[in-house]
Amino acid sequence: MNSESFTNNRKAFIAKMETPSFALLFSGVAPHKSNDQLYPFVTDRNFYYLTGLMRENFTLLLVKGAKYESEFLFIEEPSDFATKWLGKRMSQAEAAAISGIKVENIRLNQELNGFMHAAVLSDSRKALIEMPKILYLDLYRAKPYQKPKSLQQANELITAYPELALKNLNDILYDLRTIKSESEIKMIEQAIAYTNIGIEALMANAKPGVNERHFDALFDFTIRLHGSEGTAFNTIVASGKNATVLHYEENNKDTVDNDLVLLDLGALSGPYAADISRTFPVNGKFTARQREIYSLVLDVNKKTIKKIKPGLTVAELNKFASDELAKGLLKLGLIKDASEVGKYYYHMVSHYLGLDVHDVGSYQRPLAPGMVITVEPGLYIEEEGIGVRIEDDVLVTENGQRNLSEAIVKEIDAIEELMAVND
Ligand code: GLY
Ligand code: MN
Ligand code: MN
Questions:
Q1: Which fold has domain 3-177?
Q2: Which of 35, 70, 125, 396 has a Cα at 20 to 30 A from 178?
Q3: pTM of the predicted model over 0.85
Q4: Is the CB of residue 359 below 6 angstroms from any atom belonging to ligand 1?
Q5: Which residue has the least CA distance to atom 3 on ligand 1?
Q6: What is the pLDDT of residues 269-280, one digit of tens each?
Q7: pLDDT in tens, 76-91
């Protein structure tokens, strides 16, 4: 994506900030793992959305006064030591080229506190705006009653300037991030294309006895080989009864003949995610019973996708899918009353997708062009060891929808044909 996308994102964000105010966003640091080891670094998605940068320990500062607005970036100082041990640090010129922030506004981390004190939180003649009253921070809480991470990152500042009112910048950003631009949609399509290649590799290498871990590793290997940065979330490979556990991630059981294998996985393209579920018979042929259950889920998957259009809510979409699944279960005699559908279907049919796999945004908001959502009906029949989920990624358009993952095999005949190469 080019710097114009990120410049536009910042413009849209600043337009919604109150005056006089400023916003601070942090790219984050890799979390500690054990002893001197860290987990891989993952850039804060809000920070990425506004800068296009995927580097640790960077800070974005947006300032908005009545007659003035500006953007500053604080980055780690390039040094010979850091270059020798950690690889080359990003230069100010490189950060400017990616983000579209003026190079003269890109400063070093050690200048941040002094700059805040002298140029932002000050009544001096050098101040950029009158003393700001509002500080926008990302107040996302990972768990109830857990302090937002940004409070720790901005702790010194908040303690020194207790008169600042905190506002949650997600109230602005979530709405913006919900509507994807053309270039974001292209990134998601690329993530889906990598996922497609990975899924085909799995189906083409399936046979009874192959361990779930083998499929997991093969997916990772295949997508990375083709250029993806890796998986967007922990891959689920669930065979037989394991497929009735929604977020099964152990992925360590040997498959057995006549198992169905449920895959729920997605590749990354840059920081953008795909989120796809497919279910296939490990021996390449659906049994009659598996066909019955699979066909019902597939039918609901297709009908739910067709239903998508601007104005509808995700709650309405979920109700539609749930009612359709109930009708099918009644026909199959698995339930006696539609109200029992929860016995076999117990999650929502849809969520937003984008920079996060469960992307941000309000579900009170009716669907609108540019939103990307998943459609993922499933049935989980524990007593028969059958779990089926079929998940596609769908763009809401002016007139309806476009299934971005249309090309990923899901018809029974097409799956069996693809897997026939294994015989
Ligand atoms: N992969 C998680 C989900 O489908 O929501
Ligand atoms: Mn999924
Ligand atoms: Mn999903």
A1: Creatine Amidinohydrolase; Chain A, domain 1 (3.40.350)
A2: 70
A3: yes
A4: no
A5: 275
A6: 999 999 999 999
A7: 987 777 777 777 789 9
